[in-house]
Amino acid sequence: MLEEQKKDDKDENPRRKFIKVMFAAGSIATIGGLGGVGKYLTPPIKFASQWPQIRIANVSQLQVMKPVVFLYPDTDTPNWLLKLGVKAEGGLGPDGDIVAFSSICQHLGCTPGLLSPGDSPPCNSSYKAQFPMAYCCCHGSQYDLVQGAKVIGGPAPYNLPPVKLQIDSNNDIWAVAMGPPNIYGMGPGRTDDPSQVLEYDTFNANIITQGTAIPSSG
Ligand code: FES
């Protein structure tokens, strides 16, 4: 039993572990003195000075709905760089169809699958995509990649966060920042109130330390 518990602890997602530790710290603070409760339950926010700037790929390398998977803004957070094949909200490049999003489902952190128009997800053969989208077979969350990875079905409470891109004069595509909402599992502000959705929560040094942020390239 104890061995199983140890294994569970070892396998646990470090972000979840952090939340548990903070919860435990809050409990200790409560026992220690009610005057300090607010102070100890809210992790102090420290922001990194700037987002990493990394080169992902060249425009000429992209093929429609063939994702380039890249890590950003830290070393264990995957994203998709995509050429959707249709003009998209915020899309860059000659066809206005190059976008990038976190590939972590906002429901419980699975990896959704990508669907081109007419495709069905492996878990639901009666479903046919009408446009480029992501479908999470864990519990059925659906994201419209043409409209900023907006949630269009299933239990996900938030859109997939976009990676902000820039294209330089050599047609190299760079990741330069993340947009809100927060990446799944990161940041204290998980709410639909825009004033509470802090773009830079993903750089709260208590969750992603500067040491794990990807170094800028170039
Ligand atoms: S984790 Fe994706 S729908 Fe539940």
Q: What tags apply to this protein structure?
A:
218 residues, alpha+beta, Rieske Iron-sulfur Protein, four-stranded antiparallel β-sheet, three-stranded antiparallel β-sheet, 3 helices, 21% strand, globular, disordered N terminus, binds FE2/S2 (inorganic) cluster
Walk me through what this model shows:
This protein is of the alpha+beta class and 218 residues long. The protein has two domains: 2-41, no CATH class; 54-212, 3-layer Sandwich (Rieske Iron-sulfur Protein). Helices cover 16% and strands 21% of the residues. It is built from three helices and ten strands; from the N terminus they run αααββββββββββ. The strands form three sheets. Strands 5-6-7-8 form a four-stranded antiparallel beta sheet, with no helix packed on it. A three-stranded antiparallel beta sheet has the order 1-10-9, with no helix packed on it. The chain has a three-stranded antiparallel beta sheet with strand order 2-3-4, with no helix packed on it. The longest helix has 19 residues, at 14-32. The N and C termini lie far apart (50 Å). Mean pLDDT is 74; it is low at 1-49, 189-201 and 203-211.
